[in-house]
Design brief:
By secondary structure, this protein is α/β, with parallel strands linked by helices. It is about 55% helix and about 10% strand. A six-stranded mixed β-sheet has the order 3-2-1-4-6-5, sandwiched between helices.
Length: about 290
């Protein structure tokens, strides 16, 4: 598994060889194994644990496990406690959305301190679940590529491996972890997708999860290629306007540019409109 992760990091340019990174560590199997793998691959790691205070003694036990494991490995560890209920009430959002916003804000502050990269433990199965959640919520073409390997300084080195590989690694290398019972709560859509929909798809056609994982990787590559082409088109248009006579330049500004893009997308050779609609980044991603 280490070799798969190493190749994925290199291909997606997530970390340079020997580059340090924060690792968001909840105490669950995915993040505890990620910490172990990145360290084994020669990346100086710093653990970052968020205590949401939502599960009482269980949350305390998660934090204690992370701190103990980091001491054993000699890994620096930072923890913080956030008031999720207060944020949810203040902004009128769900507990899950409030927790996500608080996590992201803290990760960004850590990134500013350095090291810049913050590694998250989303894996291939998470990406498939996210794809189905977006489709079930009517997100049109959004999210078909699942979860992006990179969002700014937040990186996801485990998108090349599945949950089974992570659990096998934990057992083989003696990585301790705790199970979050809320991950099995049927009140959450993700839990039902994970426990009901995904197993049903695998039962209908064995190997379907691996096939969907390959399809998502392909769609992500299309998305990257599309962004690169769009960037090149914009640069060439800017260069053409810069060479044009002052009276011939397009004076419509941003509105004019958007109209030009719509016209290009409607032309027979302009497939960008369909590509952008179908392969824009996922809209429902947990950090």
């Amino acid at each position: 598994m280490r070799d798969d992760v190493r190749r994925f990091i290199r291909r997606e340019e997530l970390l340079a060889p020997g580059e340090a990174a924060w690792v968001a560590v909840s105490g669950g199997s995915d993040s505890m194994v990620l910490l172990h793998v990145l360290r084994a691959l020669g990346h100086p790691v710093h653990a970052a644990h968020v205590d949401h205070g939502l599960r009482g003694a269980e949350s305390d036990a998660d934090r204690a496990l992370v701190e103990r494991w980091c001491r054993e490995l000699g890994v620096p560890c930072r923890t913080t406690r956030v008031d999720v209920h207060a944020r949810a009430a203040e902004q009128g959002v769900s507990v899950q959305m409030a927790a996500r916003a608080l996590r992201i804000a803290w990760f960004e502050s850590l990134s500013e301190e350095g090291p810049r990269a913050v590694a998250l433990a989303h894996h291939r199965d998470d990406a498939i679940e996210t794809m189905w959640i977006n489709l079930l919520r009517g997100s049109a073409g959004a999210g078909r590529g699942g979860i992006a390997p990179r969002n700014g300084d937040r990186i996801r080195p485990f998108l090349c491996v599945d949950k089974a590989a992570i659990l096998a690694y934990a057992q083989a290398h003696g990585v301790p972890f705790r199970e979050d019972r809320s991950n099995r709560d049927p009140h959450y859509l993700r839990s039902r997708v994970r426990q009901e929909l995904v197993p049903m798809l695998e039962a209908l056609r064995p190997g379907s999860l691996r096939a969907m994982g390959r399809s998502q990787a392909w769609l992500r590559e299309l998305e990257v290629a599309g962004r690169q082409q769009d960037h090149g088109d914009d640069r060439r248009r800017d260069e053409q306007q810069a060479r044009a006579e002052p009276g011939q330049r397009d004076q419509r500004g941003d509105r004019g540019r958007r109209e030009q893009q719509r016209e290009a997308g409607a032309s027979p050779s302009g497939v960008r409109r369909h590509r952008r609609a179908a392969y824009r980044p996922a809209t429902h991603v947990r950090p």
